Amino acid sequence: MSTMKYTIIIPYMNSMSNFRKRNLFYVIENYMNIFNDADICIVEQTTSELLKPDLLNKYGTHITYFSCEFGENFHKTKLLNYAINKIDSDIYIMGDADAYIDSNCVYSIKNDINKGSLIYPFSSVNYLSEYDTRNMLFNNKISYNNHGIVITRQTGLINVFTKKTYERVGGFDECFTEWGAEDDAFLIKCRRLISPIYRNIRPNSVVYHLFHPKINTPTYLSKKIYKNNRKYCACIKRMSIDDLNDYVNKKNDMNYYINKYETMGKLNTEFKWECTPQGGLTIDTTIYDIDDTTNMSFTKLLNIINEEDGKEYAINFIKNIIFKIPNLTEEQVKELNLWMI
């Protein structure tokens, strides 16, 4: 029997969407069923009728609830820092309120923690359709026949780390607001200051993302908040190791380094590469932060994946993601085949 203490932290902010509310409780039930030796902490921004503590009592002593006031905009990183500093644990599992896992992911959480500074316990993400999510939440029926897109590489949703890792990288960066790139920034700090991250590549280790009305619309993606988040992430990637150490030790704030690296001309990156005109499949290059140009080749992208995650993962990425892009040219297919040799 494991003597490690596992704590799942779920940051949450109430909304008018019935999906958001029901998703959260579905996720809680999932963890209680398949990871019953872990504690769960719900840390909510502002108190909602939904999450009054008496509604959580039915889950017993394994549930902790905090409520924080951080203004109108969602502050995921502040919520996470608040909860982690309140709860002592050996292993922290940061989970989104709309993502649940299978038992194979639990196995990875318990057995892979020493394989990297940050653990991603899933090998694929299944974005459930509205149809499937409605069946699960409202009709208590489970069916993945109409699932949404499945991807094999992602930051966020579920990640695992120790208290020592958290403290070494200075926690989550509170300059990030709303959503977008805060998980990437944490990943980059872990990889640069401690050791490579570990991605579970065992088959059938799946995290399921429940449907909800999308926020990543063109309007939001053009907002200053989102663009600033991407710039903060890029700045962390561009920092020298001395600057990064000074930053996590709070010798200078983010604005200081933004000004420094903008002056150096190193923060001009376009962050997202649309791979299909239909928008059904994208490769988000935020965590690669490749260079100061929007012209990115597959080879350049794959070389960075290889450096950060290894050849096996990069080849899986080609087979499971890139080869699914419609209308690849003969030259692109040749480029990919040569890279895999």
Write the SSE topology.
Layout: E1 6-12, H1 18-34, E2 38-45, H2 53-56, E3 63-68, H3 76-86, E4 91-95, E5 99-101, H4 103-111, E6 119-120, E7 124-127, H5 130-138, E8 150-151, E9 158-162, H6 163-168, H7 182-193, E10 198-199, E11 206-209, H8 218-221, H9 224-238, H10 241-248, H11 254-263, E12 272-274, E13 282-284, H12 298-309, H13 311-320, H14 330-340
Helix pairs in contact: 7-9, 9-11, 12-13
The percent range for strand residues is: 15-25%
If classified by CATH, what would the architecture of the domain at 6-219 be? Answer: Alpha-Beta Complex
Write out the strand line-up for the largest beta sheet, numbering strands in chain order: 3-2-1-4-9
End-to-end Cα distance, whole Å, is: 44 Å
Number of strands: 13
- Figure out the total of helices: 14
Radius of gyration: 20 Å
Brief synopsis:
With 341 residues, the chain is α/β, with parallel strands linked by helices. The chain contains 14 helices and 13 strands.
Structural features:
five-stranded mixed β-sheet; 14 helices; Spore Coat Polysaccharide Biosynthesis Protein SpsA, Chain A; alpha/beta; 13 strands; 16% strand
What do these coordinates show?
The protein is α/β, with parallel strands linked by helices. It has a domain at 6-219: Spore Coat Polysaccharide Biosynthesis Protein SpsA, Chain A. The protein is 40% helix and 16% strand. It has helices at residues 18-34, 53-56, 76-86, 103-111, 130-138, 163-168, 182-193, 218-221, 224-238, 241-248, 254-263, 298-309, 311-320, 330-340; strands at 6-12, 38-45, 63-68, 91-95, 99-101, 119-120, 124-127, 150-151, 158-162, 198-199, 206-209, 272-274, 282-284. The strands form four sheets. It has a five-stranded mixed β-sheet, with helices on both faces. A hairpin with a 7-residue loop joins strand 12 (272-274) and strand 13 (282-284). The termini are far apart. 36% of the residues are buried.
